[in-house]
Amino acid sequence: MDRLMTGRNINKNNEGSSKKNKFIAGIVFLVFLYFAFIIFFDSGEKVTIENQREGKEESVHASSVAADVKYEVSEGDIPADIFSEYGKFDANDTEKIIAAAENVYDLSNLKIGRELRFYFNGESKAKKMEYDRDTERMIIVERKREEFSVREEKIAYEVSQEIACGKINNFFYVDAQEAGLSEATVLEVGDIFSFDIDFTTEIQVDDEFSVIYEKRMRDGKQAPDGVILATKFINEGVAYYAYYFENDGKDGYYDTEGRLLERQFLRAPLSYRRISSGFTGTRLHPITRRISAHYQIDYVAPIGTPVISTASGIIASAGWEGGWGYIVRLRHDNSYTTHYAHLSSFAKGVSSGASVNQGQVIGYVGSTGWSTGPHLDYGIKLNGVAVNPLSLKLPKGAPLEEEKMRDFEEIKKKYQPLL
User: Fold this and answer.
1) What are phi and psi for residue 345, nearest 5 degrees?
2) DSSP H or E run through 28
C-alpha cells in the first residue's frame, strides 16, 4: 500500500512538473512573440519616419539649390539678357512677360541693386520670378505652361519693435547710429521733426532722442527698418513728440495734440554749412560794394549740394537771370512764392509749368551770376512782399477729427511711457 501511494505521488509530481514546465515554456513563447512583434513594428515605424524625414530634407535641399537662383541687377544689364540667362526664358517669353506686366510694373526698367529670384521646380524654364521693386513691394511673375501672369505683393518681413535712445555728444547723425539706428532711420527722424528743428544749426550737445521703430528681418538676414512708430527729441530743453498714425488710409506723424506735423514750408532748402548773409535791409554787397537790402538768405554749401523745394508748387520759371545766375522760381498755395538762385544746374524734369512736391530736388548749389563763392540764395515772398524765411511762422497742421482722436490717444498711451 505504501509503495502504491508513493508511486501515485511520484506520478502526480511528474504530472505537476510537466504542466509547470509547459506553462513556463508557454509564457516564454508569448514573451518572445511579444518582443518580436514590438521589434518588427517599431523598426517598421522608424523606417517610415526616417524615410519621411529624408524625403523632406531632399525636398528642401532641391528647392533651395536647384529651383532657386538669385541675381542682383548691375549697371549695364539688359532685362532680356537677365531673363534668358537666369530664368531660361526665350525672346517670346520675355515679350509675354513685359506685356503681362504692363499694368503692374515696367519690367523693362529694372533698377540697379535690386534682386531677382527665379524658381524652377525641376523644370527647364523658371516657373516663378520675383523682383523687389522697392523695400516694401515685390513683383511676382508666374508661368503656367507658356502663359504668364504678373501681380504685386507686399514683402513679408519678420518684425519686432525696438527702442533706441541717446544723447548728442558729437552730431545727431553719428550719435543716433551709435545708439543702433540705421542711416535711413536717422534721416527719417530728421525729416519728421524738420518743421520744428533745423538739424543743421539748432542741435546742441546734451540734446536727447528716443525712437521706437520696426526692426525687420527677411530670410534670417537684417532688412531695412520699417516704420518709426513714435519718437521724441529734446532740443534745448524743449521736448518734441511725433506719433505715427493712419488717418483715412493716409499715414503721417502727429504731435501730442493730434495735429499733423507737416507745414506748408520746410525750415531750409538744403543741408548747408553756414549762413553767409541773412535777411536784412542793409548789407554791403560783395560785388558792387554798396549798401543794399538783402531780403533773402544765403546758405553756404559745396558745389553740387542738392537743393530741394521747401513747399509743393508750380515752377514759374527756370533759367538764367543775369546776376541771379541759374535760378528756379516757384508759385505756392496761399499766395507764396520762392526762389533758388546761383545754381550750378537744374534737376531732371525742372521746367516752367512743371509741378514739384515738397522736398523734391530741383537743382544743385553753384556759384553762377553775381557770386563770390558756392552758395544758395533762397527767398520767400507773400503777395509779392519779401518775408524772412527764418522767422516765418506757419500754423500747425490740421488736427484729427474727434472720432479719430480716440484712436490716436490709444496710440499715445501705448508709446509715450516708452519714450
Assistant:
1) -165, 170
2) helix 2-65
Distance CA 337, CA 316 (A): 9
Residue 300 and residue 341: Cα distance in Å, rounded? 12
Residue type, 361: V
What type of residue sits at position 339? Answer: H
Q: Does 15 have pLDDT greater than 70? A: no
Q: Where are the beta strands (DSSP E) in 81-146?
A: 115-119, 128-132, 137-144
Burial 120-159, CB ≥16 within 10 A → b, else e: beeeeebbbbbbbbebeebbebbbeeeebebeeeebebee
Place 303 in a pLDDT band, splitting at 50, 70 and 90.
very high
Q: 3-state class of 296 per DSSP?
A: coil
Q: How far is CA 140 from the centre of its chain?
A: 19
pTM over 0.85, yes/no: no
353: left (phi over 0), alpha (psi -120 to 50) or beta: left
Which class for 77: exposed (0-12), middle (13-18), buried (19 or more C-beta within 10 A)? Answer: middle
Backbone angles phi, psi at 17, to 5 degrees: -65, -40
Cα dihedral 294/346/135/72 (nearest 10):
-140
Residue with cell 559745396: 302
Rg (CA), the chain: 38
Neighbours of 85 (CB within 10 A): 13
Q: What is the Cα–Cα distance from 279 to 283, expressed in whole angstroms?
A: 9
**Cell matching residue 167:** 544723447
Query: Mind listing the pLDDT tens digit for each residue in 90-100?
Result: 999 999 999 99
Asked if residue 415 has pLDDT above 70, the reply is yes
Write the DSSP assignment of 138-204 as a string of letters.
Answer: EEEEEEETTEEEEEEEEPP-EEEEEEEEEE-SS-HHHHHHHTT--HHHHHHHHHHTTTT--TTTS--
pLDDT digits (tens, 9 = 90+) for 259-271: 999 888 887 888 6
Domains and CATH numbers, the chain: 69-154 (3.10.450.350), 158-254 (3.10.450.350), 274-387 (2.70.70.10)
> Among 337, 276, 349, which Cα is nearest to 310's?
337
Q: Which residue has the cell 560783395?
A: 286
CA dihedral 304, 308, 313, 314 (to 10 degrees): 10
